[in-house]
Amino acid sequence: MESINNDDNDGGEQEAQAEQIARSQHQRQRKQERQRKFKKVNSILKKHGKFPVQNRNSIDELVDRFLEEVEDSVHDLLCNNHVDADNYRGLDSDRDTEAEVETAIRCFPDVLSRRDDRFDEYPIRILHCLRLHTGADRICNLKAVSFIPIVARLAVEFGLFEEKERGGLLLEEDEGEDNRNTLQLLWDPNALTHPTTFKAGMFFFPKKKGINLLFQKDTIGRTPYKIACASYDQLFQKNTFHTPFYGSYASYGVHYASKNKGRDAVMEVIESTLSNCSDKPDNFVDAFLSAAVDKGISLDCVYFLLRRDPDMLHKLRLDSTLD
Question: Where is the composition biased (Acidic residues) (predicted)?
Fold first, then answer.
């Protein structure tokens, strides 16, 4: 009986190996076929002027159509935020690399200043969100949100928006609630579990505004900082803490000695991000003064800045003395 089972296992392993070999061979054949076609296309384009005029016209039409369809494909990749079960077709950080996305955009930079037909929005304005179905409320798209820094940086590099619009993140036409939503995206509780996005906010906005928005009150007095701390606390209490930055609760739950593990986790994200923004001067005097006088900013901001730089008040006194 044992011999029969061993034979069955050996047969199953051999079959699996054979299937793997067959798949590998098929992939190699497809790759070779693609390379052969690419070489042929390149050869045709190089000899374009030697073809009869009617063939040249056909080639021109095909090239125009090819470029148009590839550009549409790149634009759709940036704007496709509808998700239906496993039918998501937008950017995915688990599949797409930053280098690949940058290559695609550099080939067709105008896609960044081209509005989406469905929502009449620029790609950077809808890249961060998902729609479960037509007309549904948006939810944060953690698959694509980490690409916001690349999109904004390239938009600035190619001069597709005015300088004050920060690569499309701040548009004069987008006033009121829409504009606040774009700003808050980079500092909302989800962003605090995604340091790449939080860093984008610190990079593309002055530190005064960047820090203060972490503590900006909403209509009922909540701030992104407090909401994030509460969310982390709940996850720790349920022993289900898992984020792209910290991993599982089992690995990191004992990392924080304080009872306020949620606050400690959020503070670690903030401090890590600030320390990595090495190209920005580490001076928050303006942010401190703004937080002290602005009723729309929680006093948590004042406490945070004082804890980070206990000499803040001394610096202010020196500045006033020099003046």
Answer: 1-13
